[in-house]
Amino acid sequence: MQYAKVIALVLGVIYLLLFTRSRLMIIFGNDRVEGNFTVSKATEVTQNINFEQWFHIFGPIMSTLTRTQKDAGVIFEGHMWHSFNDNFLRVPQLHAYYEQVFGNKNKIRRLCELGFNGGHSALMWASLFNGDLELLSFDLCVGERCDIGEAFIRKMFPNIRLKIIRGDSTKTVPNYVLANTNVKCDFISIDSDHFGSVDSFDILNMRYLASRNHTVAFEVADEMSNGSFLRTVGLAWKRTISSKIILQQGECQFCYSNHVKNRTCKFCFGKYVF
């Protein structure tokens, strides 16, 4: 009887390990998903994981991307995977974006973002679809940041259909829209230039890429910031709401966790009004 219990326990542990692996593991060639590692080709991603499991897997990968950029001397703007001492500070924002995209992944054929930066957000989108995604990004692409980010993403997800449009978004977005009238986006993420009226133009221009059943995510709507350029971003979002260009969904939420002081960054979701 005792032996039977031991055998049952061993079999139970084996089953649990196999089940957990099938749900949580990503295979990176000969690399392991833990601590510091060099990312190679991703060959397997689970389809049914929650935010905490996904975050545990991809947090170290995002840190690796950051180190890769910094080792190359790249300077890039702040982004939603902002970290300090390898601790990610914008977990509420990451969780909300995860829920919006992963929860509607069957409805999203093409995802468009304004602000590729170092590639962190693009890598996030790719991870949620195991690379099986058409991703259109607009960015100034200062220095090598876009090249490094794109190479990193393609190495992990060679099946990704990624296109980066480089240059001033106030010009490249309208030009792209005119040349590609049939291209529409099911999820639009806007994190653009924070100076002058650029954000207002970007919000207006991205409207023409929105599909009928879309969602807009607007980052760094920071109207209470001490920085005037960030307050401008918040005002740009509010103007689109008051002008009924966008119908906001729910309340704007704080990007950072409660313990992070003096951070007033917010993110908002909405839909363009046609």
What does this protein structure show overall?
The protein is α/β, with parallel strands linked by helices. It has a single domain (2-272), classed as Vaccinia Virus protein VP39 (Rossmann fold, 3-Layer(aba) Sandwich). Helices cover 41% and strands 18% of the residues. The protein is built from eight helices and ten strands. Strand 3 (110-114), helix 4 and strand 4 (134-139) form a beta-alpha-beta unit.
Short description:
This protein is α/β, with parallel strands linked by helices. The chain has helices spanning 2-24, 51-71, 91-102, 120-128, 145-156, 169-179, 198-206, 228-242; strands at 83-84, 87-88, 110-114, 134-139, 161-166, 185-190, 210-219, 246-248, 253-254, 266-272. Helices cover 41% and strands 18% of the residues.
Characterize the overall form: globular
What number of domains?
Answer: 1
Instruction: Determine the CATH superfamily.
Output: Vaccinia Virus protein VP39
The helix content is: 40-55%
**Name of the CATH architecture:** 3-Layer(aba) Sandwich
Termini distance? 70 Å
What structural class do you assign from the helix and strand content? alpha/beta
Look up the CATH topology: Rossmann fold
Instruction: Write down how many β-strands occur, each being a DSSP E stretch of 2 or more residues.
Output: 10
Radius of gyration: 20 Å
Percent of residues in β-strands: 15-25%
- Mean pLDDT across every amino acid position: 82
Low-confidence segments: 8-44
Main CATH class: Alpha Beta
Tally the helices: 8
SSE pattern, N- to C-terminal: HHEEHEHEHEHEHEHEEE
What does the largest sheet look like?
8 strands, mixed
